[in-house]
Specification:
The protein has 84 residues and is mostly helical. It folds into two domains: 32 residues; 48 residues, no CATH class. The longest helix has 21 residues. The model has no long low-confidence stretch (mean pLDDT 87).
């Protein structure tokens, strides 16, 4: 039940931000990025700090980066270009 409630909250915020960004000009609509990697085989339990689960979390993160390299590179370029 907790997983459903937590997921619903995140999905609602994502939906709201998508709607907000749709009201902006076409140039700014592309400035919303949602980084929401899957945990894959790792446990989502907040208190599971076992070495095995930490390794699974690391692998899930590395897989996400490999699968989304182009989007992440684009985001980094935008952040560097717009730094103050």
């Amino acid at each position: 039940m907790i997983d459903i409630l937590m997921s619903a909250n995140a999905e609602t915020v994502d939906y709201q931000f998508c709607q907000i960004f749709k009201t902006l000009g076409i140039r700014n609509q592309k400035n919303y990025y949602r980084i929401n990697p899957s945990l894959r085989k790792a446990s989502s339990e907040m208190d599971d700090a076992s070495e095995r689960n930490i390794e699974k979390l690391i692998q899930a993160g590395l897989s996400y980066v490999d699968e989304n390299k182009e989007m992440l590179d684009q985001l980094v370029r935008k952040l560097i270009y717009n730094k103050i």
